[in-house]
């Protein structure tokens, strides 16, 4: 009986399943980003280097059009970028939101962490900071993003993320004014699964040091100035080398209200298996927004990992990438949504 109890206790502390360090795990089938992060670790780089290299690769390759320049134009046709990086050893964070003119958003986020006492810089001021740090100013607009914006204008600015406004946004592009009577609404009705492919990366080295980060160009046709979950600590990602890391992707305006990445890490700290921690974080949101689109990846300091997603219209399975010492190459993984 004593041996059985001991085995059960050890299982709670070191759950069975995938366990191997170092480890890189990232949202979506962004294989080249996984390669970049994994190669950084293999070359002796830090977990911060791995996260930065992985996110930067996606920014350069414009992963799914939802990361980096030339995608997700807002209501004025401009592409802006959000990014965040977190050091799980020191709990330092650097983040940028609404970044203009600078393609390497994750690099600017790391500069915020390493060259200021601040956590988050936004908008034009973030861009000026980046230029002062030596980042090159470039146009983030492309023919593709111009075409997306042009087609949206031809469609009477639909879909958009306005609500309770006048004139009717289904017939006009504005200007918008508040309606006299405001109806209650839980979410923007036009959010879709093709507008939220944020890259979130968690990296762990052989000693269990953890870092996490995100990069995105936000939501297509967003209201200018909108900031989603990606650059918000505990929402888009979270890392603590005493517990693990997590990163989220999906309907950021909803997900950021629940700090799912922070919650998942705290659940792992309390002994939860990463898969269970991910599922609990999604369930917390699901109780309030049953059809929201979103997913989360989790990894603890022993190298166990997992993921979870909410079943939403057109979204029944979530794909993510993993590379560790067992595979030594990026492997595509998937999880069924619930």
UniProtKB/TrEMBL annotation:
Pfam families: Asparaginase_2. InterPro entries: Ntn_hydrolases_N, Peptidase_T2. The record marks 197-198 as: Cleavage. GO terms for biological process: proteolysis. CDD domains: Glycosylasparaginase (cd04513). Its EC number is 3.5.1.26. It is an enzyme of class 3 (hydrolase). Residues 168-193 are annotated as: Disordered. It comes from the Eukaryota. Cleaves the GlcNAc-Asn bond which joins oligosaccharides to the peptide of asparagine-linked glycoproteins. Belongs to the Ntn-hydrolase family. This is N(4)-(Beta-N-acetylglucosaminyl)-L-asparaginase. It comes from Acanthochromis polyacanthus.
